[in-house]
Amino acid sequence: MKQVIFSGIQPSGIIHLGNYLGAIRQWLALANEYQSYFCIVDLHAITVRQKPEELKDNIYRLAALYLACGLDPEKSTIFIQSQVSEHAELAWILNCYTQIGELSRMTQFKDKSTKHKDNINVGLYAYPVLMAADILLYNTNYVPVGEDQKQHVELCRDIASRFNHHYGDVFILPKCLLPKTGARIMGLDDPSKKMSKSAPSEMNYISLLDSPEIITKKIKKAVTDSGSEIIYNPEKKPAIANLLTIYSLLTGKTMKELEKKYHGAGYGKFKSELAEVIVDFLQPIQKKYQDLMADQRYLDNILQQGANKAELIANKTLNKVYKAIGIK
Question: I need a labelling partner for 199 at 20 to 30 A (CA). Which of 3, 18, 66, 222 fits?
Answer without folding.
Answer: 66
